[in-house]
Automatic annotation (TrEMBL):
It comes from Pardalotus punctatus (spotted pardalote). This is Haloacid dehalogenase-like hydrolase domain-containing protein 3. It comes from the Eukaryota. GO terms for cellular component: nucleus. Belongs to the HAD-like hydrolase superfamily.
Length: 238
């Protein structure tokens, strides 16, 4: 069946870009540069705990609760180090500022296999393209630094939208930005509920990037599953 798609929207983290190394390792390396010894695994555990708590207390980077995303992240970084035993507040402030900026730079991110080629081909085929990502305002800079920004007409972050996936309102904003009806659009992402189901719920088509052996979770029709990004073209070029 011909899908007649005009717009493709893309998740970013773990769909187009992924972290080169776990957060705990990046944080520990930065601490070492400041003369502090912290175990990467301990930092990783602290980070996951703190990030989870902060996300519950101040969803979507504190948007609507008077917190800037920058402050939201500085608090997460400092608290992760405190929980891992670092007490020096002056060092914490320096570390937090440095890490906040470092995550804008390409040395912390790498492209997933097939990402650049697939995006280029989709543009050549005449699709309109946009990003729909639960991310803060640094995403534009990250995409530019990783040479991906030029593929997209718009970059819609949850911070800018005021809503985070799976809230359908972020997808509705994307459809307005793309100037298309839901059935003319498809979303590509790696998360079953936030990407695949959420886009379907507003009437969009949807593809789930799912590495082999990730068989857990609800049934997704095989024609909606992308073992790699390069599989997308066969699904939409019909």
């Amino acid at each position: 069946a011909m899908l007649r798609l005009r717009l493709l929207t893309w998740d970013v983290k773990d769909t187009l870009l992924r972290l080169r190394q776990p957060v705990g390792h990046s944080y520990a390396a930065e601490a070492r540069a400041h003369g502090l010894q912290v175990q990467p695994e301990a930092l990783g555990r602290s980070f996951r705990e703190v990030y989870g708590a902060q996300s519950r207390r101040f969803p979507n980077y504190g948007r609507g609760q008077g917190l800037s995303s920058r402050q939201w992240w500085l608090d997460v970084v400092k608290q992760s180090f405190r929980l891992s035993g670092v007490q020096d507040e002056a060092a914490l402030t320096k570390l937090a500022e440095k890490l906040y900026h470092d995550y804008c730079s390409p040395h912390n991110w790498e492209l997933l296999p097939g990402a650049a080629e697939t995006l280029s081909r989709c543009r050549q085929l005449g699709f309109r393209m946009g990003v729909v990502s639960n991310f803060d305002s640094r995403l534009e800079a990250i995409l530019s630094q990783c040479s991906l920004r030029h593929h997209f007409e718009f970059v819609l972050t949850s911070e800018a939208a005021g809503f985070a996936k799976p809230d359908g309102r972020i997808f509705e904003q994307a459809l307005r930005l793309g100037g298309v009806r839901p059935e003319q659009a498809a979303h590509i992402g790696d998360d079953y509920s936030r990407d695949y189901r959420a886009a379907q719920a507003v009437g969009m088509h949807s593809f789930l990037l799912q590495a082999a052996g990730q068989g857990q979770g609800p049934e997704v029709p095989p024609e909606h599953i992308l073992p790699t990004l390069s599989h997308l073209l066969a699904r939409i070029e019909k």
